[in-house]
Write a structure and sequence with these properties.
Strand content of chain A: 15-25%
Shape of chain A: globular
Radius of gyration of chain A: 19 Å
Number of strands of chain B: 0
Oligomer: heterodimer
Largest interface: A-B, 43 and 47 residues
Strand order of the largest sheet of chain A: 6-7-8-3-9-10
Distance between the termini of chain A: 61 Å
Largest sheet of chain B: none
Structural class of chain A: alpha/beta
Radius of gyration of chain B: 25 Å
Structural class of chain B: mainly alpha
Largest sheet of chain A: 6 strands, mixed
Helix content of chain A: 25-40%
Distance between the termini of chain B: 41 Å
Number of strands of chain A: 10
Number of helices of chain A: 10
Chain lengths: 251, 623
C-alpha cells in the first residue's frame, strides 16, 4: 500500500546549522505516528518541508504517492496541517477563520457552516467563536488551528506540537478525535516532547536529533520493552543534569 | 541600572552593525551625518549672530521632527530595548523610564543629533565663554528633550490606536508628518495664485522667530540671552526646557506603567467593530470570495491597517481640501481622491508583511492566485471606490470644468497602479510586522531592515505611482480639445493593465517563491529562525556579494544625493523663488527648466536608490 507520507532525503541548512540532514521517514497509511526529539532537533523543520512550507535544500516529500514539491496542488489537498508558532489572520473571529479556511479549501458554504459549528462545539470553542483570534489563549489557538486542519476531512494530518498548552479536557477530546480518524483509515503524524503521551497514542514512533532520524519503527520495536523516556536518553547519550551544583537554590 | 541598559544596548548595536542587516543602519548614519553637516554649514555661513541663532533654532525643530517622525514611520527605529523586556522585573516605572532614556541617548541617531546640536556652540562661542558654556548645556538638554518626546509619542500612539478616538488622533498626527514633507506643493500653488492665501503666507513671521518660541528653540534663546548678559532669561529658558523634559519622562513613566500592567491608554472600549459589512451576502463562496471577505474585515478591524486608511484620508484633507479653502480651490480640490489613493497605497505595498506568517494558509491551500486577486478586489472596494467618489464630489465642488478630463484620465491610472503595484511590491519587498499579543501594535520589533524596507516602500509608492499616470496625463495635456478626452480612455486602459499585469506578476512570484516569502515572515515571528538567518548572513561573504555590497552602498549614496538635495530641496527653492544656487545643479538652468529638472533628478535618484536596495535583496538571506 502507498505510504501516507514519505520524506525522502530531506536536508535543510541554515548557515552553519544543519537543521535537517537527509531525513528519510516512511509513515504507513493508517498509522498514528509520533515524532519525538529534544528541542532544536529538526522536528518542525522536517514537518515544514514535508507539507510545503519550507523549501528543502535537497530531497522531497510524497503524500500518498504525490510529490509535494512537483505536484503541490493535488498533494496538499490531501493534508491537514497544524503548524507551531505561526499566526492566523488574527483579526477574524474563530468562526470567520474556519469559514475562510473552508472556502479556501474549495468546500461549499453550507458544508463549511455545518462543519464549523460542529468543530467549534466539540473542541469547546463555542463560547469564543465570535471573539477575535488575536485574543485567544495559546491553548485556544492550538484548538482553532486543529479545527482548521480537520475542516476538509484530510486523509493525512500533520500536527506540530498539537497538545502544547492545551488543557487536560481538551487534550482528551483531541486524542479521541485523532484516534477516530486513524480507525477510519486516516493517518496522523505529530511531534511532541511528552513521551507518555506518545507511548499511549502512537502505533509508530521516530526519534530525531541534530537533524537526523536516529531510529524509526513501530512503538514496540523502538521501545524494545523499555520506557520511551529511557530509550531517548540512551539514544542521545545524554546525561541527566541537575543533581550537582545549584547549592544556593536550596538555601 | 542605566549602565546595565547602556551595555545591553551597545552589545545589540554591535551585533546589528557587524551583521548583514547593518546596511540600513550605516545608510542612516550617512544620511544623518549629511544633515548634521548641513546644520553646521547653515550656522557657519549665516550673515550675523542673530541669523545664525535663527538657523540653529530652525534646525533643532527639524531634528525634533525627525525624532518624532522616524520611529512613527519606521516603528521603534530599531531600538533593541523594548519596555516589554522588563515586564517581569521589579523595577519602579519611573526609574525604568529614566534609565531607558539614558540608554536611548546611546546609538547612532543620538550621536548624529548631538553633533548637529553642537552647532549651537558656533553661536555661543563668539559671545564669550559664559555663552559657550550655556550653548553646550543647551545642546545636551535639547538632546534629552527630543529623545524623551520621541519615546513618549511612540508609546502613546501605540496604546492609543487600540481605541477609536486614539486611532483617529494617531492618524491625524501621521498625516501631519506626511503633509510636512509635501506641504510645499499646495503652498507653492497657493502662493503662485496670490490672493488672500498668498497674503496670509507673506504675513507669517520669519521661521527663525517661530522656531525660537518652540521648546527646541529655548536653548538658542538662552545662548542669545547669555550674550546679552540677561541671566534671568538664561536660567529661565534652560530650567523651562529641563522641567519640560522631566515632565515628559514622568508622563512616559505613567504610560509605561500602564502598558506593563497590560492596559491601553484609553479606557474607552477597545476598537472592535463587530461586522462592518455583511460581507457574506456580497462575495461568492469561492476561495477568491473568502480572501475578499477576509481582506475587507482586515482593513476595517486591524489597527495598523485602519490607521493607514485614516492617514490617507487626513493627508488628502490637509494637502488639498484645507489649502484649497485659502485659494487655488479649482487647482487643488480635484486631486483629493488621487492623494488619498496614493497615500493609502503606502500601506497596501506591505499587505503581506502586515499579515506576517499567516501566509502559511495560502501555501498549504495552493491559492496564491486567488489570494492576490482577492486582495486586489478588496482594495478596489475599500480604497478605489471611495477615491473615485471623493474625486467626483470635489471636482464638482471645485467648479472648474477644465479639471474633469484631467482627473478622469489620471485617477483610473493611479488606482490601477495602486491595485497592481501594491501586492507586487508587497511580495518583492516585504517588511514583516509581527503581531505580538499584548504588545504595542505599532511596534516593529528590533530589525533595522524592517524600518528600512517600510521607508523604501513609501518612497517607491510616492515616486512611482504618480509616474504611472504620466501617459494618460500627457494625452490630456498634448491633445487639442475635445480630443483630450481620449486621455480618459488611456487612463482606463493603462490602469486596467497595471492592475491585471502587476497582479499577475505578484501571483506568479507568490506561487513560485511562496516558501521563500514564508521564510521572511517567519524570521520575525521566530527568534530561532532569525538567529539562524543571522548566522547565514554572518557567514563568510563571497567576493561577489562583497562587491555587490560596495556597489549598492555607492549607488545608495548617489541616489540619496540626487533625490533629496538635488531633487526635493532644489525644487523647494525653485518653487519658493529663492535665489540660493549653492551646489544645486538644477538652479543653474534657465528658469522654466528648473522645476522639471529637479523632478527628474528626484525620480532618477529614487530609482537608483531602489536599484541599490534590490541589490541587497532578500535573496542574500536565503543563499
Amino acid at each position: 500500500m502507498t505510504p501516507a507520507l514519505e520524506m525522502v532525503g530531506l536536508s535543510k541548512r541554515f548557515g552553519d546549522t544543519v537543521a535537517a540532514d537527509r531525513v528519510d521517514l516512511v509513515v504507513p497509511s493508517g498509522s498514528f505516528y509520533g515524532l519525538v526529539g529534544p528541542n532544536g532537533a529538526g522536528k518542525t523543520t522536517s514537518l515544514s518541508m514535508a507539507v510545503g512550507l519550507l523549501r528543502p535544500d535537497t530531497g522531497t516529500a510524497r503524500v500518498l504517492g504525490l510529490d509535494v514539491w512537483s505536484d503541490p496542488e493535488r498533494a496538499k489537498a490531501l493534508v491537514g496541517v497544524l503548524p507551531d508558532a505561526l499566526s492566523y489572520p488574527e483579526r477574524l473571529t474563530g468562526r470567520e477563520l474556519l469559514t475562510y479556511v473552508g472556502l479556501l479549501r474549495g468546500l461549499a458554504r453550507r458544508v463549511v457552516a455545518e462543519r464549523t459549528e460542529e468543530l467549534l462545539s466539540v473542541l469547546g470553542l463555542a463560547e469564543a467563536r465570535d471573539n477575535l483570534v488575536v485574543d485567544y489563549s495559546t491553548g485556544m489557538r492550538k484548538k482553532i488551528g486543529l479545527a482548521a486542519a480537520l475542516l476538509h476531512a484530510p486523509r493525512l494530518l500533520v500536527l506540530d506540537e498539537p497538545f502544547e498548552a492545551v488543557d487536560p479536557v481538551s487534550a482528551a477530546t483531541i486524542r479521541t478525535i485523532l484516534a477516530r480518524l486513524v480507525v477510519s483509515g486516516g493517518t496522523v503524524i505529530f511531534s511532541s516532547h511528552v513521551m507518555p503521551l506518545v507511548e499511549r497514542l502512537c502505533s509508530h514512533v521516530a526519534v530525531i536529533a541534530r537533524g537526523k532520524v536516529l531510529v524509526a519503527g513501530t512503538l514496540a520495536e523502538v521501545r524494545a520493552g523499555r520506557a520511551l523516556d529511557d530509550v531517548l536518553v540512551d539514544l542521545l547519550h545524554a546525561d541527566i543534569g541537575g543533581a550537582e551544583g545549584l547549592v544556593w537554590l536550596a538555601s | 541600572m542605566v549602565s546595565v541598559l547602556i551595555r545591553l544596548k551597545l552589545a545589540a548595536l554591535r551585533h546589528s552593525w557587524g551583521g548583514g542587516q547593518s546596511s540600513m543602519l550605516q545608510l542612516g548614519a550617512v544620511v544623518g551625518i549629511a544633515i548634521a553637516a548641513w546644520t553646521w554649514y547653515q550656522v557657519a555661513t549665516a550673515a550675523n549672530v542673530t541669523d545664525a541663532a535663527g538657523a540653529t533654532a530652525v534646525s533643532f525643530a527639524v531634528w525634533a521632527l525627525v525624532w518624532v517622525a522616524l520611529p512613527l514611520m519606521a516603528g521603534s527605529g530599531g531600538d533593541p530595548l523594548q519596555p516589554d523586556l522588563f515586564r517581569l522585573l521589579p523595577i519602579p516605572p519611573r526609574r525604568l523610564a529614566f534609565s531607558l532614556l539614558g540608554a536611548s541617548a546611546v546609538g547612532v541617531l543620538p550621536l548624529v543629533t548631538f553633533v548637529a546640536f553642537a552647532s549651537l556652540v558656533l553661536v555661543g562661542a563668539p559671545l564669550g565663554p559664559a555663552a559657550a558654556v550655556v550653548s553646550l548645556v543647551g545642546a545636551c538638554v535639547s538632546l534629552a528633550f527630543v529623545i524623551a518626546s520621541s519615546r513618549v509619542v511612540v508609546q502613546w500612539m501605540g496604546m492609543a490606536v487600540e481605541s477609536r478616538l486614539g486611532l483617529e488622533l494617531a492618524a491625524i498626527q501621521y498625516a501631519l508628518l506626511i503633509c510636512l514633507s509635501f506641504i510645499w506643493l499646495p503652498i507653492g500653488v497657493v502662493a503662485a495664485q496670490g490672493g488672500t492665501g498668498g497674503g496670509v503666507l507673506m504675513s507669517l513671521p520669519p521661521p527663525g522667530e517661530v522656531a525660537r518660541a518652540l521648546p527646541t528653540g529655548w536653548s538658542t534663546v538662552a545662548v542669545e540671552a547669555a550674550g546679552r548678559g540677561d541671566w534671568l532669561l538664561v536660567v529661565g529658558a534652560l530650567a523651562g526646557l529641563t522641567g519640560l523634559t522631566v515632565g515628559i519622562v514622568v508622563v512616559w513613566a505613567g504610560l509605561l506603567a500602564r502598558r506593563l500592567r497590560g492596559e491601553s491608554a484609553s479606557h474607552a472600549r477597545r476598537f472592535r467593530p463587530a461586522s462592518v459589512w455583511n460581507v457574506r451576502r456580497l462575495v461568492p463562496s469561492t476561495p477568491l470570495g473568502a480572501v475578499v471577505g477576509k481582506e475587507l474585515r482586515a482593513w476595517a478591524r486591524h489597527p495598523r491597517r485602519s490607521l493607514q486608511l485614516r492617514v490617507a484620508f487626513w493627508s488628502a484633507l490637509m494637502l488639498t481640501v484645507v489649502p484649497g479653502l485659502f485659494g487655488a480651490r479649482a487647482e487643488l480640490w480635484p486631486w483629493t481622491g488621487a492623494v488619498f489613493a496614493v497615500v493609502a497605497t503606502i500601506g497596501f505595498a506591505n499587505v503581506y508583511g502586515m499579515d506576517g506568517s499567516s501566509l502559511w494558509l495560502t501555501l498549504v491551500t495552493e491559492t496564491a492566485r486567488d489570494d492576490v486577486r482577492g486582495r486586489q478586489t478588496a482594495w478596489l472596494v475599500a480604497v478605489g471606490l471611495p477615491a473615485v467618489l471623493v474625486t467626483i464630489a470635489f471636482t464638482a465642488l471645485a467648479g472648474d470644468p477644465a479639471a474633469w478630463p484631467w482627473v478622469l484620465a489620471v485617477l483610473p491610472a493611479l488606482v490601477g497602479a495602486s491595485t497592481g503595484g501594491g501586492p507586487l511590491l508587497a511580495v518583492l519587498l516585504p517588511a514583516s510586522l509581527p503581531e505580538r499579543r499584548g504588545g504595542n501594535p505599532l511596534e516593529l520589533g528590533d530589525a533595522p531592515t524592517t524600518a528600512g524596507r517600510l521607508m523604501m516602500q513609501g518612497l517607491v509608492v510616492t515616486l512611482l505611482t504618480p509616474l504611472m499616470a504620466v501617459p494618460a496625463g500627457l494625452v490630456v495635456w498634448l491633445s487639442p480639445s475635445p480630443a483630450h478626452w481620449f486621455g480618459v480612455v488611456v487612463g482606463l486602459i493603462t490602469g486596467g493593465l497595471y492592475a491585471w499585469g502587476f497582479g499577475r506578476g505578484a501571483a506568479a512570484y507568490l506561487s513560485r517563491h511562496g516558501p521563500e516569502l514564508m521564510d521572511q515572515m517567519r524570521m520575525r515571528a521566530n527568534p530561532v529562525a532569525r538567529a539562524s538567518a543571522r548566522s547565514v548572513k554572518a557567514g563568510a561573504p563571497t567576493s561577489g556579494s562583497a562587491l555587490a555590497a560596495i556597489a549598492s552602498g555607492v549607488l545608495a549614496t548617489v541616489g540619496i544625493i540626487l533625490l533629496v538635495p538635488q531633487g526635493i530641496v532644489a525644487l523647494t527653492f525653485s518653487l519658493a523663488d529663492s535665489d540660493v544656487k549653492s551646489w544645486f545643479v538644477a538652479r543653474y538652468l534657465p528658469d522654466e527648466l528648473q522645476v522639471p529638472a529637479s523632478v527628474m533628478l528626484a525620480i532618477v535618484g529614487g530609482l537608483i536608490l531602489l536599484a541599490a536596495w534590490l541589490m541587497r535583496s532578500p535573496r542574500a538571506i536565503r543563499e
